[in-house]
Amino acid sequence: MSNYSMKDIEWAKINKDVLKSLESPRKSFWVVLGVCLVLVLIGVAAEAYQYQEGLGVALMNRPHFWQLYISNFVFWIGMSHSGTLLSAILLLTKADWRKPIYRFAEAMTLFSILTAAIFPVIHLGRVWDMYWVLPYPNQRTIWPNFRSPLLWDAAAITTYATSSALFLYIGMIPDLAICRDNAKGWRKKLYSALSMGWMGRAREWIAFRKTYVLMACFLVPLAVSVHSIVASDFAMSIMPDWHITSFPPYFVAGALYSGCAAIITLFVLLRHVFRFEEYMTTEIMDKTAKLTFAIAMVWNYLNLSEYASIWYSNDMFEKEVLIEKFTGPYAPIVWGMLLCATVAPFAMAFKKVRHNMWAMFWLSLVLQLGMWLERFQIVSPPLASNHEPWTWAVVWPGLVQLSITLASFGWFTMLFLIFCKIFPSVSMYEVKEMVFHRRHASSRAELQDLDKVKEEMIKTEEGLHHGA
Amino acid sequence: MVRRRKKHLLFATYDDFEKAREVVGELKVLDLKEMVIDNIELYSPIEHPEVEEILGDIDKPIQRFTFFGAITGAICAFLLVAAAAQSMFTVQPQGGKPVIPLPPDIVITYEGTILFGVLSTLIGFFIYAGLPKSLRKYYNEKVSEDQIGIEVQMQPQHKEKVREVLKKCGAIEIREVEL
User: Fold this and answer.
1) Stretch(es) of chain B classified as CATH 3.30.70.120
2) Do A214 and B62 make contact, defined as CB atoms within 8 angstroms?
3) A22: helix, strand or coil
4) Interface of B with A in 52-111 (CB under 8 A)
């Protein structure tokens, strides 16, 4: 595979190809959008029913106070990780292959957070009391208790959502200017307002690059802190199977893992739908797959070390929950997770799989299923066999919870589809930069080759001269 | 009454960054000889690392905004949690626990540091990039596609000399504006 692939694409063509993706969508777009809307409406109906009747209709009762809503919350927060975090890390390490894929990954982050943020509200049951988590002096002078990880969550998610949205927006400004220069009607007005008069002046670029790197420096530790705090929701309790020191890194690795899998899914879909074959190349998929594989192995290691610490610690409650997980009613979930998230990623060790877009697409869905099951088996089984045996009960999520779960997938997809039709899902200016630098690197390499040939010719000539 | 002297502006576009580099070099030579140029600005569809090399150092100390923003965020967040703890102290017995517990407060302080750091960086960006700004009349849309723009400000009497240099270096189009 050439190190200098993509060096011959014309800049004007990059604009044309990406701007084309914003034009009137195909019929299938409206069909998918319609399905998503129906799912969202089903979720809204389920939530309205739960609002009227109480959390009992969601089958949330002792000991299952936390169930699918919290699993989904952790899943979506996890999903949000790869976009911004990977984009920031790859930006700081100057990995240029991030350029065609980071935009949609960052958008994915934002929409995942917006999806995740809905779940604590739904989970509360008393939606109208949501504002209690906000720090304000109320009539009883009781302020929110900042010692609770749930409030840390509120602070961390607000910070992460704000910073990710700004990171996405700042990175889009030069592209919004391109859109402004090529749009008409309402789009022109929208892009003009959002691009704020960007003209590509040298001072703008210098300020832009500095800002982008500074924001990336903040986003890496922020993303790690967000999922560590979500892990603290569990680890700070005394529940068996939750009170584990390695939970924060385990959650962060899991988040990166599911996020990478989601990037692969969207990569293949956008490549196919918008015909981005020239930008979303096999080379980039290969690198993304290798990264996902590496993260999968880290997650596996942390998963196994968690089992090992429970087993060798000989804590009877922890051990009981672990045995129950692998042999009890939740066993299909746990084994399913191991099959999907531990065994399946080994397929990415093979180049043939990594280079086959549709194989990667289906594999990424399997990995995501595995990670979703992982979230569920973290939340539910420990509650079913906790410290108090007289409360032991296995309760599966009911129709209300399942409807709202499905709606969350519809909501996320709907937001993502709308984004892709309004904003460029591939960064035009960064792809241009990539093309520019690769072209120059290629020319330099050719010049070096010519120099070598020249030196060899001189040597040969000198040899002939001496021989004569 | 102070009468402002009118300035002229030429905006030329090039299809290659090397040509733009050449024209800036030529203009600098011309300026050294005859002091004709008031300002040169380069417009580009991508960020060229060599821009500072050509135009000279363009200092954008955005990191100062980041630094002071982050410190302000840390202090504000810590004060918020500390104040909240004081408020609780007046109504809730603490049971021997510290009034301002450091470990949990560090989490909020950390998040506050990042949030304010990011927001102040953004403010710094807008200030140093000179945004928001209305589009200039002479702005050429090809600059956001694949051409490099050179904007030169000068006194009207030097206009022709500058135009000649811009043309000589292969300008695709030259737009003229009176400021």
Assistant:
1) 8-45+145-178
2) yes
3) coil
4) 52, 55, 58, 60, 62-63, 66, 80-81, 83-85, 87-88, 90-92, 101, 104-105, 107-108, 110-111
Inspect the interface and report whether the beta carbons of B107 and A155 lie closer than 8 Å: yes
Query: Range with the lowest mean pLDDT among A55-59, A136-140, A143-147, A421-425?
Result: A136-140
Of A3-12, A87-96, A248-257, which gets the smallest average pLDDT? A3-12
The domain B8-45+145-178 is placed in CATH, from the list 3.10.310.10, 3.30.70.120, 3.40.50.2300, 1.10.3210.10, at: 3.30.70.120
Q: Are β-strands B8-14 and B37-43 bridged in parallel, bridged antiparallel, or unpaired? A: unpaired
Q: Does B124 touch chain A (CB under 8 A)?
A: yes
Supply the angle between the helices A68-92 and A247-273 in degrees, to the nearest 10: 80
Q: What is the ipTM of this complex?
A: 0.89
Sequence-distant (≥ 6) Cβ neighbours of residue A172 within 8 angstroms? A103, A194, A423, A424, A427
Collapsing DSSP states into helix, strand and coil, what is residue A201?
strand
Q: Which residues pair with B166 in a beta bridge?
A: none
Q: What is the pLDDT of residue A1?
A: 43
Compute φ and ψ for A393, nearest 5 degrees.
Answer: -165, 140
pLDDT (tens digit, 9 = 90+) per residue, B83-130?
877 766 666 666 777 777 888 889 999 999 999 999 999 999 999 998
Other Cβ atoms within 10 Å of A447 Cβ, number: 10
Q: Is the overall model pTM greater than 0.90, yes or no?
A: no
CA distance A205 to B125: 10
Q: What average pLDDT does this structure show over A87-97?
A: 84
- One digit per residue, pLDDT tens: chain B, 179 residues? 445 566 788 888 988 888 888 888 888 888 777 777 788 888 988 888 777 777 777 777 899 999 999 999 999 999 888 887 776 666 666 677 777 788 888 999 999 999 999 999 999 999 999 889 888 888 888 888 888 898 888 888 888 888 888 888 888 888 888 77
Size of interface A-B (CB pairs under 8 A): 177
List all residues 6 or more positions away from B57 whose beta carbon is below 8 Å from its beta carbon: none
Q: Which of A435, A419, A192 is nearest to B141 (CA)?
A: A192
Tokens representing residue A7 in the block: 């060096």
Write b or e for each residue in A173-211: b if 16 or more Cβ atoms lie within 10 A of its Cβ, otherwise e: bbbbbbbbbbbeeeeeebbbebbbbbbbbbbbbbbbebb
A8 touches chain B (CB under 8 A): no
